[in-house]
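Example 308.
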Amino acid sequence: MKAVADAPSKVIITGEHFVVHGAWALAAAVPRRVRVELSDAPSLSVSSDRFEATSPKLAPVAKVVKEMGREFSVSSSVKVSIASEVPQGAGLGSSAATMVAVASAFSRLRSLGLRVDELVRLSMAGEREVHGKPSGIDPTICAYGGVVLFKPGLKPMKVKLAGPRTILVSYSGIDRATKSQIRRVSRRKKRFPGLFTRLAEGISELSVDAARRLAGGDMEGLGRLLVIDHAVLDSTVVSNETLDSIVNLMTSLGGYGAKLTGAGGGGSVLGVAPEAKEKRIVSALSARGFETFAARIPTEGVKSWVER
Ligand code: PMV
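Predicted structure in complex with PMV:
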């Protein structure tokens, strides 16, 4: 018998970085998924289609399993196999999707019957190893799915869309390091505390407005907010020339607006565009070597089942 779990990846639509300092952020699950299989074994082992079995990148996965074993007093001797469609280092939540899927599959294998919020809490043990002091937005959206307004310490608010929407996602090909980017922004906060607080308040308000516009289908209004958010992120030194050039391409090719998504310094850009322009933007960016796709949202969160 094996337990299988499948979790979506994610984009942060607005509010990254400031969410670490208490602002509202808006995130959506996107349908590039991670699949995890767990079965009983003589000892704990982790393998992945992305890394060598000895890679330190797999240690946080083992940590989630061990901590769950300890907390629920059950055996953590399992074989974990990970298969991912999510580019790693792209700011699309590949680690969060993996941790959430592992927590969900372990819960299923050991019949723990854990709730979604518990899966998020348990996956944070691995996320902290990877990212230092993350806000928790990544595992939250991968676990809940759909679209969520998130603020640290509060219950995530599901955003109900009046219809399906498309978000364009383009990966710069540059690996980003969330831990150092978070530190960089924190240094800015220390240097300009008053200004930083007001920027965080502004971005918090922007995220709530972005949720309203996305829900109602005002993609043009959402695009304008993305442009403002990108400028603020740029001013907190998390963008770079490649991300800026993708943002500019998305808008110059007829998009409503675009911004970096996730920690920045690399990773991906997201944008929204009139339906008639979406294909053109995806092929133009792909032709320039950036892995680009149109993500239909909403998409469902983590799910798990047993296979015999
Ligand atoms: O690791 P990423 O690229 O998905 O970025 C996470 C978003 C941050 O706000 C930068 C960090 C966090 O934990 O909220």
